[in-house]
Design brief:
Bound molecules: zinc ion
Strand content: 25-35%
Number of strands: 6
Radius of gyration: 25 Å
Helix content: 10-25%
Largest sheet: 4 strands, mixed
Number of domains: 2
Order of helices and strands: EEEEEHEHH
Number of helices: 3
């Protein structure tokens, strides 16, 4: 059986079986990691797994779990974050909005009452 040597930050080197190692391979390569419960202190140890570590663990018999991050989670956003007033304004607007789809299709119908819009 394959023995995988890993390192616990508290206990030092530990030996694991492939079944004791969790390998998560993320669609964002830098987010991939492997984790295990230390056989000595029973704490979970989690470490980043670069491409070489992923290949090494898979070759040692560790089953890789795919982790696909949704594209919207990677979107960059600018501007201020929504606050409670924004949500309340939206909820109030929804109560009086009859044509929701039509309003969503136009940019002028946004429920931002506190921000004056400039006319082109
Ligand atoms: Zn330990």
């Amino acid at each position: 059986m394959t023995t995988i040597k890993a390192s616990c930050p508290s206990c030092g080197d530990v030996e694991l079986t492939p079944q004791q190692v969790r390998l998560v391979v993320c669609s964002v390569k830098t987010w991939s990691y492997y984790a295990f419960v230390c056989t000595a202190c029973h704490e979970e140890v989690r470490k980043p797994a670069g491409r070489d570590v992923v290949a090494l663990l898979i070759s040692g018999g560790v089953v890789a779990e795919p982790w696909n991050v949704p594209a919207e989670a990677l979107e960059e956003h600018d501007g201020a974050a929504l606050n409670y007033d924004d949500v309340l304004d939206f909820a109030l607007w929804l109560e009086q909005a009859d044509m929701l789809a039509a309003a969503a299709a136009t940019t002028s119908a946004r429920p931002r009452t506190s921000t004056p819009e400039t006319a082109a």
